[in-house]
Amino acid sequence: MRYIYGVVLLMVATACAPIATHEPISTKPVTVEHPMIEAPTPKTPGSLWTTGNGSLFVDNRAGQIGDILTVAIYEVAEANKEATTSTGRTTSASADITSLFGLESNIANINSAIDPAKLLSAGYTNDFKGSGSTSRKEDLVATLTTRVVEVLPNGTLRISGSKSVTVNHEQQLIQLSGIVRQQDISAANLIDSKYILDANIIYTGKGVIDDKQKPGWLLRLLDNVSPF
Q1: Beta strands across the sheet bearing 68-95
Q2: Which residue spans within 15-119 are E strands per DSSP?
Q3: Backbone Cα Rg of the chain
Q4: If we measure between CA atoms, which residue out of 216, 185, 163, 153 comes closest to residue 62?
Q5: What CA–CA distance (Å, rounded) separates 142 from 190?
Q6: What letters, b where the CB count within 10 A reaches 16 and e where it falls short, cover 117-144?
Q7: What is the Cα 43 distance to its own chain's centre?
Q8: Dihedral of alpha carbons 38, 32, 147, 202, sign
Q9: pTM for the structure as a whole
Q10: CA angle, corner 170, sides to 21 and 14, nearest 5?
Q11: C-alpha distances in angstroms, 169 versus 18, 95, 213?
């Protein structure tokens, strides 16, 4: 009867638990803050013209702070690893007493089943075999427009950008930052993600699907207190 009461109390306590609520999805544009640092202007004393890397023809490629640059993200990563370990050890030891101050005969007289020649014998065997394998594959294909936030002294550009898409209360967010060379930018003002140095690409989501991928609160609580 006490067991039934305990089950009923547990069910009542579970029913009184707060209902999971979803955080409201922000509709504000997501921005990644970076300081706007301008490259130092080269000094050309005694000249009417300033030194620069600009072309005499019109060039739509990004090269100054605030310019827009489109990044074609194509990241494919695949890794496989397998390990096997096998060890073994066998140890044996034996000792016999043929003479011990004449006491060996007394031992045999006490118990005829004891043979002094086989008084001590020991053996030990240890075997271990282990194996493990892991496999991982990731694909990310997207297009993201970024902004030049810094021009480094050597002419390379630091870019940063983000994009947020919300469909049926499911928010998908992609962020990118890194350093690119101007010569890697195509005439269409486009660059592949493989040419980005120190690329930091974040692709995450928040919403109903993200919530369903997490265990419930009770299961998480049991995992925290479980000794196994």
Answers
A1: 190-192, 68-95, 120-151, 157-167, 170-180, 197-206
A2: 68-95
A3: 37
A4: 185
A5: 13
A6: eeeeeeeeeeeeeeeeeeeeeeeeebeb
A7: 46
A8: positive
A9: 0.53
A10: 25
A11: 21, 79, 15
Q: Which residues of 160-193 are buried (b: 16+ CB within 10 A; e: fewer)?
A: bbbbbeeeeeebbebbbbbebebeebeeebebeb
| pLDDT tens sequence for the chain (228 residues) | 555 655 556 565 555 555 445 455 454 544 545 555 555 555 656 665 655 555 556 678 898 999 999 999 998 888 888 888 888 878 777 666 666 566 666 666 666 666 666 666 677 787 888 888 888 888 889 999 999 999 999 999 999 999 998 888 788 899 999 999 999 999 999 999 999 999 999 998 887 666 666 677 777 777 777 665
Residues with Cβ within 8 Å of residue 130, at least 6 apart in sequence: 84, 85, 86
Alpha-carbon dihedral sign for residues 108, 111, 112, 118: negative
Phi-psi region for residue 169, left (φ > 0), alpha (ψ -120 to 50) or beta? left
Rounded distance, CA 159 to CA 179, Å? 6
